[in-house]
Every structure is written in structure tokens, then in C-alpha cells.
Amino acid sequence: MQILDGLAVAAHIKEQIKTEVATVKNKGGKTPHLAAILVGNNPASEAYVGNKVRTCSELGFGSTLLRFGTEMTEIELLHEVKKLNENKDIDGILVQLPLPKHISETAIINAIHPNKDVDGFHPISQGKMLLGQDTFLPATPYGIMLMLAHYNIDITGKHCVVIGRSNIVGSPMSVLMAQNTNPGNATVTLTHSRTKDLKAMTLQADIIVAAIGNPKFLTADMVKDGVIIIDVGINRIEDATRKSGYRLVGDVDFENVAPKCSFITPVPKGVGPMTICGLMKNTLKASQIAR
Ligand code: NAD
């Protein structure tokens, strides 16, 4: 069993990005600049945004963090997005989800200019991805594909079972793994909460991508020997031994599943750091679009 070390792969990719940005800057080119919008004070969102902003400075990117209270209206948020769309210095716009219930996430995502859609959630980005055209890929599936490529994991012809069909993880993951690319060409089964007999599916899987949001959901009896596991879940569970009172676990019962795997991502330090890499690569790409 080999651990897929997201932290190490991310460090490697970040070094490459850092070098590229320094070269661009030395030639008088544009410094990539990410704008992040955070509405409210959800602790997990605070942590994610903080991480993204810190990574920007680590890589030599500019960043702007706009924070607003939960009383912000949808119209006010649309106005902020419009200002960022028009600001020539800003290359990428990220609106941290979830948003308060009274704001439509769809309306906000649709308002982001597709050339600045570094999260890859806009319908134009998703449509192009589906057609295999060059675009911003959603950061988490993009990061997972980068990790598979880094470890030279050949998924051609393999049976991949994706658990979860969200627009930001499960669905795009199923599309990317099935595409005629490298890595790609997997045979994909997309499963979700209405799937009958999920265990029968996962037992057939050569690769499982778990993106559910349910701690330790995937158990050892649900997987075959030699399986490759990508655990996307990030779940906080109570842990009195920690100062914070909680710890993070994935959607996979790591302790019992790992011994059966050929490769497995841990949580934390697996998919999470790779997601940030996907976002940073998208921001660099956005900064290179002529406007
Ligand atoms: P979501 O809530 O939008 O989607 C969850 C999916 O799981 C749904 O499609 C649902 O059908 C499926 N599901 C629920 N119960 C199921 C069951 N019993 N059997 C089969 N499928 C079931 O969640 P999401 O945004 O896709 O996120 C999933 C998890 O990944 C969360 O824990 C989230 O925090 C985490 N996440 C991690 C990263 C990262 O960078 N590591 C990025 C995004 C999301």
C-alpha cells in the first residue's frame, strides 16, 4: 500500500508555479491576482479561504480578500462580482461556498466572468470541460487528475466508481476520468444517494473516488484488494484529545481500508492540498488571458 502524499505533490507543483511566475514577472509580465469573497464566518470556509490567500503570497501571486457579513444581499454580492469582473488587475474570482441561504449560489457563479472563473464552476467552464475543450477545470477534480499524473497511475480501461454527483466534485470527476486523455480513459460508474446496492458497485471498482461528506462511510467490506482510493471528504468529528475539540476525517474508514489498497489518499494532506494547486494553476492561466 502506498500513500498518495498530496502535501508532497502539491509542494512540487507549487515550486513549478513559483518559478513560472518569477520568470513572467522578470520579463515585466502580469503578476497573477486572485480575489476571494467570503460571506459570513463559517469556520471551515474561513480556514479554506485563509489557506488559498496564504498560498497566493507563497507563490508570488497578488491576492485580495473581501469579507462581508451574512446580512449581505444577493444584489450587493452581484455588484461586488461585477466590480471584480471589470477590474483589470484581478485575474481570478473565487466566491467561497456555501453562501448564506438567501443568496443564490447559481446566480453568483453565473455572474462571474468566464475568463476569471478559476474555480471552474461557471456553466461555460463546465460545458467546455464536458466537450473536452481547453478551460478552467473545477479545482478539486483538476487536483486529483494532477495527482494521478504525478504518480503515473494508469487508469486506462480501469473501472472507476465515483461516489457523489455534486457539480463541483463527483460529476466533473466522472467526466474527466472517462475522457480520452492521459490520465483518463477509465470506465466510470457515477453513484449517488439513490444508487441501489452501492456495495455491489464498489466491490467491482479498481478505483474509488469518495465525495460524499459522510465520515468513514466507505468501509473495508465494500472494497476489493488492490483498489486505488481517492478520499475527497473533509468531515469534522469530535475529538476531546485535540485542543480544537475536533479532527478531520475523510469519507473512507482509512484505518481498515488502507491495508487493502494499492494506493490511497489520506485526510488531511491528500486531496485538499491538490485542490489548492488546481486553483493556483487556474489563476496563473487566467492571468495569461489577454484582455
Ligand atoms: P455534496 O453534498 O454537494 O454532494 C454529496 C454527494 O454525495 C451527493 O451527490 C449525494 O448524492 C452523495 N451521497 C450522499 N449520501 C450518499 C450515500 N449514502 N450513498 C451514495 N452517495 C451519497 O458534497 P460535495 O460538495 O461534493 O463534497 C463532498 C465532500 O467532499 C464533503 O465532505 C466536502 O467537504 C468535501 N470536499 C473536499 C474538497 C477537498 O479539497 N478535499 C473539495 C470539495 C469538497
Principal-axis shape equals: globular
Rg over alpha carbons: 19 Å
Assigned CATH superfamily of the largest domain: NAD(P)-binding Rossmann-like Domain
> Which small-molecule ligands are present, each listed once?
nicotinamide-adenine-dinucleotide
Overall structural class, as computed from helix and strand content, comes to alpha/beta
Number of helices: 10
Tell me the major beta sheet.
Answer: 6 strands, parallel
Q: How does CATH name the architecture of the largest domain?
A: 3-Layer(aba) Sandwich
CATH class of the largest domain: Alpha Beta
Query: In terms of per-residue confidence, which ranges show pLDDT below 50 for 5 or more consecutive residues?
Result: none
* First-residue to last-residue Cα separation: 48 Å
Overall number of strands:
11
Strand order of the largest sheet: 1-11-8-7-5-6
* Overall number of structural domains: 2
What is the N-to-C order of secondary-structure elements (H for helix, E for strand)?
Answer: EHEHEHEHHHEHEHEEEEHEH
The percent range for strand residues is 15-25%
Which whole number gives the mean pLDDT?
Answer: 97
What is the share of helical residues? 25-40%
CATH topology of the largest domain: Rossmann fold
- Multimer state: single chain
